[in-house]
Amino acid sequence: xxxxxxxxxxxxxxxxxxxxxxxxxxxxxxxxxxxxxxxxxxxxxxxxxxxxxxxxxxxxxxxxxxxxxxxxxxxxxxxxxxxxxxxxxxxxxxxxxxxxxxxxxxxxxxxxxxxxxxxxxxxxxxxxxxxxxxxxxxxxxxxxxxxxxxxxxxxxxxxxxxxxxxxxxxxxxxxxxxxxxxxxxxxxxxxxxxxxxxxxxxxxxxxxxxxxxxxxxxxxxxxxxxxxxxxxxxxxxxxxxxxxxxxxxxxxxxxxxxxxxxxxxxxxxxxxxxxxxxxxxxxxxxxxxxxxxxxxxxxxxxxxxxxxxxxxxxxxxxxxxxxxxxxxxxxxxxxxxxxxxxxxxxxxxxxxxxxxxxxxxxxxxxxxxxxxxxxxxxxxxxxxxxxxxxxxxxxxxxxxxxxxxxxxxxxxxxxxxxxxxxxxxxxxxxxxxxxxxxxxxxxxxxxxxxxxxxxxxxxxxxxxxxxxxxxxxxxxxxxxxxxxxxxxxxxxxxxxxxxxxxxxxxxxxxxxxxxxxxxxxxxxxxxxxxxxxxxxxxxxxxxxxxxxxxxxxxxxxxxxxxxxxxxxxxxxxxxxxxxxxxxxxxxxxxxxxxxxxxxxxxxxxxxxxxxxxxxxxxxxxxxxxxxxxxxxxxxxxxxxxxxxxxxxxxxxxxxxxxxxxxxxxxxxxxxxxxxxxxxxxxxxxxxxxxxxxxxxxxxxxxxxxxxxxxxxxxxxxxxxxxxxxxxxxxxxxxxxxxxxxxxxxxxxxxxxxxxxxxxxxxxxxxxxxxxxxxxxxxxxxxxxxxxxxxxxxxxxxxxxxxxxxxxxxxxxxxxxxxxxxxxxxxxxxxxxxxxxxxxxxxxxxxxxxxxxxxxxxxxxxxxxxxxxxxxxxxxxxxxxxxxxxxxxxxxx
Length: 892
Fold this sequence. Notes:
The chain contains 58 helices and no strands. The chain starts with a helix and ends in a 6-residue tail after the last helix. Among the domains are: 353-445, Leucine-rich Repeat Variant, CATH 1.25.10; 722-823, Leucine-rich Repeat Variant (Alpha Horseshoe); 826-892, Leucine-rich Repeat Variant (Alpha Horseshoe), CATH 1.25.10. With 892 residues, the chain is mostly helical.
């Protein structure tokens, strides 16, 4: 009972404290008086919104009339009455003072806040409680300081609850952190504190809020729904699901549910849609569409199979209509085998009926693909005429129509389709043969029937039957397939038999395939090697190993690929020996496949292959090392030192990709090498190590480095550290050393831009040092600051702060804004600069420069005209080509 009383008391305060109930009761029960104040009070009730008589009534001689006026002004949110209400405050007793504070909170005008704040910071009592409640009607930013001071006061439990709720409502995260001092004394206060923390972004408090969700008042629940619509919380699924089960589901809850997207349970979404009103349906449908459409369709079809009520059936059909109608129709047709009446009624609702489908088929202009799809649906509805329609399409001369008909016959599942499909296995078109074989497999054609076709005089039929037998994977046909390897069979049949044996993957076929490796026909030997790889195992590997010494590079390549499929340890040593073969094709094939084994002998061999004369071998060796994740450090570092040789770049790529921890110390040592190239290489590789010690070492070397390649790589390596490098870069950007300052400025251009970095770069434009100005321009271009760079274009010819090319490069790097600035500068520039601008805009190739280039063909300066022609030659627009043709170049 005590909790109920306190909840009722707090609700009254949040409703702006005794807003009218007390007054109405006093009006009804007051004893007759000589004063006619009841009539005056009744007149106020009939007044129009914010009528002047309401404000005038604040000066009435009877307190009850003034009370009625205060209440009316607050309810109608009369902002113009705020000064009058504030002026009346001190002349009223405490009860009307409370009503004034409540009215000011209802109105929410900033002019009323000082009075509400004064009352909120006054002595404890009803007036302060009312004022704290009224703060909720004002702007959060204005109320925040008042709430912050309230946190420092000794407040009652109800007042604390009000403060906590306001902090949550206004999302004052800084104040929410201070509420923990109030925790533990009152369960309701603890709930409000958790709510405030949660609404200000503390997700750890969400579990408590969601657990107590049912105990929260309706307004707070609505606010949480709105929060979840903006920032979904999967933990709230239970609370939202319970809200959606109400009839009808609240709109705010439906929007929060939609925000969950694919996380929203499908069952609850469909349940809610059944009882949802029109305004909530779009949000729930959005939640449904966030999931895979097929999943939603299948769920609805499953419900229709369960024979739901007529109203539910109608609702489900409406939902299906809003999803993918074709997908829904296909799913419903596939579900007709359940013989559920609701399925047929749903099909009718989607317009999928025999009459509608036949009417569509009667359209002579119906596209062939649509005709096949319509006939398939007609057949799925049980209409016998669909099979004849599909057979007519199957006889078409159009390949796509025939393919579609073949696939449709497979989906129809009509046994009558088997014979014509078997006849199509020897079709001249390989695409038709492939589609036919796939459909026969779908129809469940047995290996026995296909094996019977192996005796056909039609070679194409035997080849396709063998191929399909291999796809079916039935070992019972192994003897008959193996028999087709014999001498005397056409080569195509023997090849198909070998491929089928590989697809069957039975070890028993290995001896026959091994024997085939002795054939004089290269294609048979190649196919046998591939099939042995598909079978796998040590027996297959033993048969393949002798092929590594064959003179036929294609056969050796097939054997290497097949051995990789077996992953036989016995193959490693022969493959490593083959890596030394003179034929680059063999070496490349070995390097490509060695990544399939986990063997300690392989990485050193691959490291040696990084110096191979064949670029493809080096590429495959590098990829294999990265795939294995192993870096033979000594060999790779040695290769780095041989920069005049072939392998240094591959070694660099392996070290860059793997970034082995064991290499860090050596790279840091090389960072101080007397060899400038070694220092640059070390800096380039240290980009992959993102720890503080490495960053410090890079900064120290940047301070000392004098050679440009090393500084270039050091700058980029440091910039790769991102925010961690900013402080050190900024410090060096203020250095008095021009070289170091320029390097740091370039690094600022590679870091995410900030206000401080922009200021430093702009200041550097005024530096007397040319390299400092150049670095600043380059960096400003990288961060896209066209606004700062554009004014520099006004300094033409020798007056440029940097070279024109540097400035143009930077502006082009700024994208659209930089190109626009360059175009605007063209007309007012002197001929030399104008020519350069046109040349560079033309080289850039953007179509926006075309009008300028066309216009410049008539420029008085031959230098400008020549630049315009060069730029037009880079344009893909036909007008550029036409202008060049119509305006021949003048002789120099």
